[in-house]
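Reminder to self: tokens first, then the designed residues, so the page reads top to bottom the way the pipeline ran.
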């Protein structure tokens, strides 16, 4: 991708700028605009999330004390600790309690891909609008665009399903099922009740945008392919 961006930024300067928005009205350019927009929503809905899970703790001298654990992207939950009730009033039975799981790899893979796609779409749109004649006359550009489109469609598939699985695990690790694993809640005279967890609707939306991006890039393979010599050769053979 870096090599292609370098070619996009350097080579066209020698070819001359000719602004033409006509390609944006065709499927090739219109889909690229949608890919650019959807990539923004993908990394914004995932990378901008902040939430917390809350428990109600009762122990010696403490009744329904609210303890919270705040978590956010990139979802290294194993570094998130619950705020503690007064440990002295609990008879010293309360120790630091951490959430379980590290889901940063899947989340960062998803967000990083979305950011790279965002940057690539900008570069591609600059070529489509300002250097359409270069794109159509130089066969290397459509072929490179095709290769990147195929790879990106595959990466959206992998990253979206990996992130969807991680999101399901995050919901488990921040929901009511965490209480049986908290040792401090098992101390004599101590009870813990699950209170709430921040709605993860925006994270669900991020998965939807991942799927939409996967579909868009998969569909765009055909339109990019039509501008390559491979399609022209196939037509001549037929």
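Designed residues (238 positions):
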């Amino acid at each position: 991708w870096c090599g292609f961006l370098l070619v996009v930024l350097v080579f066209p300067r020698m070819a001359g700028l000719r602004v033409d928005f006509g390609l944006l009205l065709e499927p090739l350019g219109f889909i690229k605009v949608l890919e650019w927009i959807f990539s923004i929503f993908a990394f914004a809905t995932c990378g901008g999330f902040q939430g917390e899970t809350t428990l109600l703790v009762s122990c010696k001298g403490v009744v329904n004390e609210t303890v919270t654990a705040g978590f956010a992207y990139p979802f290294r939950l194993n570094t998130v600790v619950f705020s503690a009730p007064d440990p002295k009033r609990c008879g010293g039975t309360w120790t630091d309690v951490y959430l379980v799981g590290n889901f940063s790899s899947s989340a960062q893979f998803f967000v990083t891909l979305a950011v790279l796609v965002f940057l690539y779409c900008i570069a591609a749109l600059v070529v489509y609008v300002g250097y359409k004649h270069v794109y159509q006359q130089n066969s290397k550009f459509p072929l490179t665009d095709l290769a990147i489109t195929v790879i990106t469609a595959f990466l959206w598939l992998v990253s979206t399903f990996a992130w969807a699985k991680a999101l399901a695990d995050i919901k488990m690790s921040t929901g009511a099922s965490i209480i049986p694993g908290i040792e401090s809640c098992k101390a004599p005279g101590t009870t813990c009740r699950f209170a709430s967890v921040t709605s993860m609707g925006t994270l669900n939306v991020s998965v939807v945008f991942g799927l939409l991006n996967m579909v868009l890039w998969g569909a765009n393979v055909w339109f990019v392919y039509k501008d390559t010599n491979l399609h022209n050769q196939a037509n001549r053979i037929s």
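The radius of gyration is 25 Å.
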